[in-house]
Amino acid sequence: MKTQEAISLSDDLINWTDKSIDGIDLPSETRFRLAGACLDVALEHHKAIILLIKHRLYGSAFAMVRPLFESYVRGVWLHRCASDSDINRFTADKLNYSFGKLIQDVETLPGFDVGTLSKVKSSAWSAMNSYTHSGLLQVTRRNTASSIEPNYTEDEILEIIQNVNTFSLFIVMGTANLAGNEPLMKAVLEKVEILNKGSN
Question: Which of 75, 112, 151, 161 could bond 6 through an S-S bridge, CB–CB 3.0 to 4.6 Å?
């Protein structure tokens, strides 16, 4: 798959996502509002990453992957793991659990207990940090033999696109779970199959 084809697939996915969650009803309790806001931020990050890649702003696109991942995990954690006192601390901006603890808590839940999130963190966290904080991986991709300019391979760009597209479906599933919307949950699973076929 080439970059332009992957971008086109991403645009289709974004359109599907927007239509799928438009007008979705969420409970009004604080827990659900906070979790829903985190998931909404994560979806916006997905759109931003694809838009940045379209405009060949690859460094900024790569830097957004970590915030997307964190927003998703935080949204699931607030919805399904946080105690009432945790919610109160979050609303006071005094919740200071490590991101590793959030993942550990989420992975006690059915469906998350296969350890996918911790595997992503273990394998990609250092790279995410490097791209987000202008570390070595980011800086070395600003250099060519003769100048300082973006220098990212197509394989690297495709990997980012495929990863964030997959996470966008996780995010929609989290939103469907928040709403208790079983038809949307089923639709997400069907979309995962289609996406997997399209990337092969």
Answer: 161
